[in-house]
Amino acid sequence: MSKKKLYIACIGAGYVGGPTMSVIAKHCPEIDVEVVDVNKDRINAWNDSNLDNLPVYEPGLKEVIQKARGRNLFFTTDVKGAIERADIIFISVNTPTKVYGEGKGMAADLKYVELCTRQIAKYSNGDKIVVEKSTLPVRTAESIRRILEAEDSKHSFTVLSNPEFLAEGTAIDDLENADRVLIGSDETPFGLSALEKISSIYEHWLPKERVLKTNVWSSELSKLTANAMLAQRVSSINAISALCEQTGADVAEISHAIGMDSRIGSKFLNASVGFGGSCFQKDILNLTYLCRYFNLPEVAEYWEQVVKMNDYQKNRFANNIIKTLFNTVSGKKISFLGWAFKKDTNDTRESAAIYVADKLLQDRAEIHVYDPKVNSEQVIQDLLYLQKYRFVNNHDFESLPEEEVRDLVKVYNDPYSALKDAHAIAILTEWDEFKSYNWQEIYDNMHKPAFVFDGRNILTRTMMSKIGFKYQGIGSAE
Ligand code: NAD
Ligand code: UGA
């Protein structure tokens, strides 16, 4: 008798659902994978025959899509059909910081997860394995299970946790060569058999030893802990960068020196204008909220400091621009190289660039932006969104009318136009192409003194000073 075909549905076709399911489909041709989303435009973009129009930019993603799409990988808005067909349902929807009500500015907003759960209960026509792929507060699996059981008593459900550790910009490589895959299940026979099923999917391309099996709560909390520890490293080195600027020590030399200690390790020690991305801040705030909920205020404060240090770093960078430009940027052209939160992604969520621009706009600077992967409307929307939902540190900030934001902020398709006649350049993202620009030509076309604020330390002081720039990196004195 031939083995019954396995069907996977993934709810949420975003930065995680899209790439993760594509890699599963690529390596498991015998499994049908359907990625569903309520956002029609996003699904249309995933189905676009021109692979340059995929909604997510990730190196290597196009090749994976080309291989699997239409064969055993499908993108659809048919949530009901996908749930009905699926044996395994991954929940990969967004879990942003709440912007209203109880826990506003701290807790994870779980409304999308709950909605998904209720859809699963409504459309299930048999027993289902439900897998948390989204990053969730510890013990969310229990709430999911309770809702499923209350809404649908005819079928059995088991809820597993399988958090995702990919980083944007390297998502495909991170998935193909994952350091580890983590799966948490309960001890019931259904839970344990589901655990083996999920594990066998990953074992199509990863060695068995890299699939870690834990209880559900450890799995959920490992994800928040991993992000908190990674962000903590960035905040720690950024804290030291401030001290370097006062003392003549060089943070790059310090990162190198401490990173050679195998107990510390060399990764994630690049001082920067501050970490961004949709997850670090959100997950730490969520962790902090959980600690307060469980009456652990000291633990909450400890982790909250990582976010506070990051705010300090972004603020420090913007203030330094204002101070260096003779205490006023009003009417001055400040050109931004980069808007995405890191290189090799079109994602701008929580990018440091947004905060720095917001601060400079308070002083009515003109911001001229070039980013190889971010379009004009995205930049404007990011700024308007921040003005609407400022939670941390920024209570005395003014929100500018939309027309004024549109008037003060210009976005270019060509870097040289963005940089022409600038009073200062701020490097906000570490895109490789910035290094190979004709910096002499850029200098010749700028107001003097020509200031460069390198928030990513991608250029060298010697080269820039030789041309004539007044160059400031992060964590080294002039
Ligand atoms: P995203 O916003 O890019 O995608 C989420 C998608 O879910 C959206 O397209 C949205 O329309 C869809 N959605 C929401 N509710 C739905 C519903 N009821 N039915 C169908 N579709 C629905 O988010 P993301 O970046 O992919 O993140 C998803 C989760 O993964 C988050 O919890 C995040 O913390 C976690 N995570 C993200 C990353 C990352 O690099 N972005 C890495 C690891 C983990
Ligand atoms: C991060 C984690 O690295 C992933 O493991 C995790 O799955 C993901 O969050 C998530 O849960 O969303 P991501 O945010 O995509 O991935 O990218 P990172 O490479 O971690 O960078 C985050 C931010 O920190 C970026 O703004 C980056 O520029 C900054 N960073 C990183 C530094 O400033 N210095 C460093 O040394 C490293």
Question: Radius of gyration, rounded?
Answer: 24 Å
User: Please, how many helices?
Assistant: 18
In helices, the fraction of residues equals 40-55%
N-to-C CA distance: 74 Å
The mean pLDDT is: 96
Name the strands of the widest sheet in spatial order.
3-2-1-4-5-6
Protein name: Nucleotide sugar dehydrogenase
Task: Tell me about this structure.
- With 478 residues, the protein is of the alpha/beta class.
- 44% of the residues lie in helices and 14% in strands.
- It is built from 18 helices and 14 strands.
- A six-stranded parallel sheet has the order 3-2-1-4-5-6, sandwiched between helices.
- Strand 1, helix 1 (17-27) and strand 2 form a beta-alpha-beta unit.
- Helix 5 packs parallel to helix 6 (140-151) and helix 9 (216-247) runs parallel beside helix 12 (297-324).
- It is globular and about 75 Å long.
- The model has no long low-confidence stretch (mean pLDDT 96).
- The structure holds nicotinamide-adenine-dinucleotide and uridine-5'-diphosphate-glucuronic acid.
- Uridine-5'-diphosphate-glucuronic acid is lined by residues 135, 164-168, 227, 230, 234, 268-270, 272, 275-277, 279-280, 341-342.
- Nicotinamide-adenine-dinucleotide (NAD) is lined by residues 11-17, 36-39, 42, 79, 92-95, 112, 115-116, 134-135, 164, 166, 168, 278-279.
- This is Nucleotide sugar dehydrogenase.
- It comes from Halosquirtibacter laminarini.
